[in-house]
Amino acid sequence: MTTDTDIVAATQAWVEKAVIGLNLCPFAKAVHVKRQIRYVVSAATTPEALLEDLLNELRALQDADPEQIDTSLLIHPQVLTDFLDYNDFLDIADAAAAEPEFDDAFQIASFHPDYQFADTAPDDIENYTNRSPYPTLHILREASIDRAVEAFPEAEQIYEKNMTTLNELGLAGWEKLGVGKAES
Fold this sequence. Notes:
Elements: H1 4-20, H2 28-33, E1 37-41, H3 47-63, E2 71-75, H4 83-97, E3 106-111, E4 136-141, H5 142-151, H6 158-177
Parallel strand pairs: 1-2
Antiparallel strand pairs: 2-4, 3-4
Helix pairs in contact: 3-4
């Protein structure tokens, strides 16, 4: 049986080897090194329960000192394991982050083991930029994004650079990283 500790460890390995190791997000290393990433495993088994966990996590991040917790990964291994269901839920997640109580302070980034961008085939390498071991909602502070974009003014080029990196790596290279879909 996979424990929460195993789930967090697999997610941290993905952050270290793929997100930071391949430099898919040039902003991730700093918060990782400073231990400002909060990893939360949701026990939710329904989208409704996940929404409650998301709202609770948004509130926790809102109340946290950004120097202590800058960003949060809400990992939900038991719900929305089907990518299309997960994708449909993203509108609900975005609406939750846009609630007036959060004062436009957050946005949600999406990661899933079967992530697939529109107009791509399931195994197209570009999908792997958003492939994580478990379905994950990444809560980011808008203020942190603004600071990161100031420090990296060509942020819109990150996607193109990631495509080049992944095309050079290929599926075999990705598999060697050992950060793919987690085993249940």
